[in-house]
Amino acid sequence: MKYNMFAHSAGRPRPAQPSSRSARGRRPRVLAVSLGAMAGLNLPCAFAQETSESHDRSLPPVVVSDAAYPGMALSKPEYTGSRMGLTPLETPASVEVLDGETIRARGDQNVREAVTRATGITGNPSPGNGGTALTARGFAGQGSVMQLLDGTRMYVASGTVTFPFDTWSVDRIEVLRGPASVMYGEGAIGGVVNVVQKKPIRGPIENELQITGGTEKTARVAFDSGGKVNDNLSYRFATAYNRTAGWVDRGDANNLMVSVSVRLDVNPDFNLTLSYDDGTQHPQQYLGTPLVNGSLDRSLRKKNYNVGDAEISYRDRWTRLNAEWTPNDRVTVRNQFYYLTSHRHWRNSETYTFLPATSQVRRGDYLEILHDQEQVGNRADLTVRSKLFGLDNTTTVGFDVNKIHFTHSNNSPYGGTSTVPARDFDPGLFFSPPGIVTSPRFRSNTTQYALFGEHRIAFTPQWSVIGGVRFDHADLTRIDLVAGSAWDKTFANTTWRVGTVYQFSPSLAVYAQYATATDPLGALITTSDAQRNFNLATGKQVEVGVKQAFWGNRGEWTFAAYEIRKNDLLSRDPVNPTITQQVGEQSSRGLEASASVEVLRGLRFDVNGTVLRARYDDFNESVGGVLVSRAGNVPTSVPQQAANAWLTWNFIAQWTFGAGLRYVGGRYADTANRVRVPSYTTVDTALSWRVSKQAALTLRVYNLFNKDYAESVSNGGQQWLLGRPRSAELSANFYF
């Protein structure tokens, strides 16, 4: 039986049949933050394997406890910051784990909503990037903040990632802040988000059904089932369907997610897990609201200026076969074979400009674009634990190889304009300029391989040193399907990291780390003709931090300070502004802090925040043929302050109240820093009632104070993609 409210404890055994006394004494146990990684997320998580403790884990039942809140388990081995199974206190980096039960209890139904409650992570979504782009430590976009599913990445194509998106199938989300190229290659100087799916469970079959209805004709049906078929075979199945009329005119949207995994325990030392995830999305065909004289006109808040036959759709399919062999306590071998496909389609008018003289809106950029992507690959690693000169040593070595085929179709050169009244208008139909049709324009074939290794040596029980290195090699062929020409490009980079941890006590550790990274100038597999003569951008980070559990593990806090410097950005030649050089530089330095405290019995408070200074250090642009320096300016779409808070209160038996606050600081929409997007604060609330052991009801209100805010901007900052206004949902969960 499962209890999906605000209290939880990831990976800890829980009683399935609580007594009424223990139920009355239940304390909410909300996972807040756990930091501790080197410079990457775990490969064992990527391989969907579980520790011996998790082998006997079942779907979470009603959560009850008469013991003290056990905290964030900083001393429990986790595969989050390295492949070596270290505890968070043993790893010299910042990693935060968001448990799936907490995510769903807070009402975060998509991955972006969930992960932006983590420390220092903010969103920058738009239909053009799949609604998933993030910002971390002063660096924005898919090329700087990598996103994974079970440790596997689908390579970014034209700045777009579209899966995973629904949190119903999520076991946890692991967030690594700072460079992670040593673990996953190029494209992670700001951080990594790893979504770990629910896995087969070796226990009795248990099921959960959720039915939700809400404002804006919102409806959701979700089902989760898992358990063992026999002593050797177990499964997990999760699916969720969502639809809504949206908060703008013609804002209908729907999506469907299916996640299936089957595990075969061949013997106690060897197991196989076959996983398949499928997602279909039709998001709102809403590209934003034009500003009026530089400000938002609330009377246009619900207007949708897209064409009447607009189209935005994504279809993603991920298949993974994982194998794990543990012949003894010292050796672990893991392998994952994966096959991924993605098909995306956009057909919209994407830019809107308000014309004050006529109170009309001019629409432009009639774009139709299609992506067809296929990726097949294999990743393996070997971990060995040993003694060397009496010192504990752990070593991991491995490889990753894949092949990616990508085809891009469009209707360029993009054109088309139309003018409609600002308020009452016929949206019309999509059109391209005469003689322009949508057709395949280019194709790329990329073959990539990587060799990686990690090593940890413990000089004393308190002091350890950890290092890692990775070599990446990629051969790219880009074929111009219109001109019939082609060219090849090879990228080869080596990244490394080194860190140290000193534990003053079993519950207090300080750490320091130095790491290097690489980032693409755009997206590796869609490197353009203009970028073919340049190499990947490079970066480095220095980070120090502290982690501590206190008050009998009822409270924990973390703190980190860092500086990141990214080099080799494309910039204009100071002598000849018409020439582009790879000499630019961008940097960020900041502070991050988080805390989770059980203040009183049944009352828990989680809070995190970040302040940073992000700057272009060396960056020139050509404006009207004149060279302009942007040195000292803040990079676009980067807020320099962000904070989150969540209060959970089990105020009477079977009733739980939760409230969360999300703050995002102001951002700039242009490199000149002339267009500033205001900061915003939103508040979400939820009230849950455990009706019986088999049922629960939850009422949620999002954006309680109906704040108008921009999630992202376009058209030079004159067009805001507005976030969700105040809305409410009522969910019923059934456990059987």
From TrEMBL:
<feature type="domain" description="TonB-dependent receptor-like beta-barrel">
    <location>
        <begin position="266"/>
        <end position="704"/>
    </location>
</feature>
<keyword id="KW-0675">Receptor</keyword>
<keyword id="KW-0472">Membrane</keyword>
<keyword id="KW-0812">Transmembrane</keyword>
<comment type="similarity">
    <text>Belongs to the TonB-dependent receptor family.</text>
</comment>
<keyword id="KW-0408">Iron</keyword>
<dbReference type="InterPro" id="IPR036942">
    <property type="entry name" value="Beta-barrel_TonB_sf"/>
</dbReference>
<dbReference type="InterPro" id="IPR037066">
    <property type="entry name" value="Plug_dom_sf"/>
</dbReference>
<feature type="signal peptide">
    <location>
        <begin position="1"/>
        <end position="48"/>
    </location>
</feature>
<dbReference type="Pfam" id="PF00593">
    <property type="entry name" value="TonB_dep_Rec_b-barrel"/>
</dbReference>
<dbReference type="InterPro" id="IPR010917">
    <property type="entry name" value="TonB_rcpt_CS"/>
</dbReference>
<dbReference type="InterPro" id="IPR010105">
    <property type="entry name" value="TonB_sidphr_rcpt"/>
</dbReference>
<keyword id="KW-1134">Transmembrane beta strand</keyword>
<feature type="domain" description="TonB-dependent receptor plug">
    <location>
        <begin position="89"/>
        <end position="192"/>
    </location>
</feature>
<dbReference type="InterPro" id="IPR039426">
    <property type="entry name" value="TonB-dep_rcpt-like"/>
</dbReference>
<keyword id="KW-0798">TonB box</keyword>
<keyword id="KW-0732">Signal</keyword>
<feature type="compositionally biased region" description="Low complexity">
    <location>
        <begin position="9"/>
        <end position="22"/>
    </location>
</feature>
<keyword id="KW-0998">Cell outer membrane</keyword>
<feature type="short sequence motif" description="TonB C-terminal box">
    <location>
        <begin position="719"/>
        <end position="736"/>
    </location>
</feature>
<keyword id="KW-0406">Ion transport</keyword>
<feature type="region of interest" description="Disordered">
    <location>
        <begin position="1"/>
        <end position="26"/>
    </location>
</feature>
<dbReference type="InterPro" id="IPR000531">
    <property type="entry name" value="Beta-barrel_TonB"/>
</dbReference>
<keyword id="KW-0813">Transport</keyword>
<dbReference type="Pfam" id="PF07715">
    <property type="entry name" value="Plug"/>
</dbReference>
<protein>
    <submittedName>
        <fullName>TonB-dependent receptor</fullName>
    </submittedName>
</protein>
<keyword id="KW-0410">Iron transport</keyword>
<dbReference type="InterPro" id="IPR012910">
    <property type="entry name" value="Plug_dom"/>
</dbReference>
